[in-house]
Amino acid sequence: MEKYKIEKAPSYYDQAYNSIKAMIFNGILKPGDRIYESKLASEFQISRSPVREAIRSLEKDGLLVIGDKSKITIYKPTKEDIENIYECRQALESQAAKLTTLKASDKELDEIEKVLVKIQKNIESFDDTLTKSIIELNTKFHDLILDFSQNKHLKKLSKDLSSLTYFYRSIDVYEPDRNMDIFNHHLEIFHYIKKRDEEKAYKAMYNHIDNDLKHLKNILSKDCII
């Protein structure tokens, strides 16, 4: 009977949520842009209720801002926002790297290594079509370290930042030199995790996120976003 199982179709809410989110991450909706519930509902050819629900969820994620008179705009980062969020990431993910070094099984380390191999292959054959894949694999690298930390509270706190973290990654500049820089940082982090050197793994992750912060601020200041 298993092969005859009927798959549940995604709800209109899920589709609206994922579509708006993808439009933000892909740069179709840019920081500061205003959006309209009625216009989105018309474009999606659905009622306004699931769009309204999706907008509320995206506001909780930090990707939308609802201001005076229910004006809805795409989140526009400030220098203070970025610094605050990356400070949180440094605290959480550096500790996750340390815990993963101490607790991850060899099989789990193999899983992280497989992600790094995929990233390297994408970088070696890089073109613009691979940008999204590289971002997703970089995200997977960080997520696995959080998963293998075996600290559910640390994972939950990090998940609260996940949408904005991905948003920041999506507006980073992914060119061959930048990709290789990130990859080398990931290799260094993994090297110390695999060696079971928790203090150096902690420091390598901390420095990696600090490097990301500086690079992101440089990009956004050039684009006059912050």
Report the radius of gyration as a whole number of Å: 19 Å
How many domains? The number is: 2
The CATH class name of the largest domain reads Mainly Alpha
Distance between the termini: 56 Å
CATH superfamily of the largest domain: GntR ligand-binding domain-like
| Binned strand content | under 5%
State the share of residues found in helices, binned by percent. Answer: 55-70%
Mean pLDDT: 93
What about the largest sheet? 3 strands, antiparallel
Please report the total strand number as a whole number. 3
Low-confidence stretches: none
Q: Order of helices and strands, N to C?
A: HEHHEEHHHHHHH
| Number of continuous helical runs | 10
Please tell me the CATH architecture of the largest domain by its name.
Up-down Bundle
CATH topology of the largest domain: Four Helix Bundle (Hemerythrin (Met), subunit A)
Order of strands, widest sheet = 1-3-2
Q: Tell me, what's the shape?
A: globular
GO molecular function, one term: DNA binding
Keywords: Coiled coil, DNA-binding, Transcription, Transcription regulation
Pfam family, one: FCD
Protein name: HTH-type transcriptional regulator YdhC
Give an overview in words.
- This is HTH-type transcriptional regulator YdhC.
- Keywords: Coiled coil, DNA-binding, Transcription, Transcription regulation.
- Strand 2 (64-66) and strand 3 form a beta hairpin.
- The mean pLDDT is 93.
- The chain is mainly α.
- It has helices spanning 12-25, 37-44, 48-61, 79-103, 106-124, 131-147, 152-159, 162-170, 176-194, 198-222, and strands at residues 34-35, 64-66, 72-74.
- The chain folds into 2 domains: 7-74, Winged helix-like DNA-binding domain superfamily/Winged helix DNA-binding domain (Arc Repressor Mutant, subunit A, Orthogonal Bundle), CATH 1.10.10.10; 79-222, GntR ligand-binding domain-like (Four Helix Bundle (Hemerythrin (Met), subunit A), Up-down Bundle), CATH 1.20.120.530.
- A 3-stranded antiparallel beta sheet has the order 1-3-2.
- Helix 4 (79-103) packs antiparallel against helix 7 and helix 4 (79-103) runs antiparallel to helix 10 (198-222).
- It is 70% helix and 4% strand.
- The termini are far apart.
- It contains 10 helices and 3 strands, in the order αβααββααααααα.
- The protein is globular and about 55 Å long.
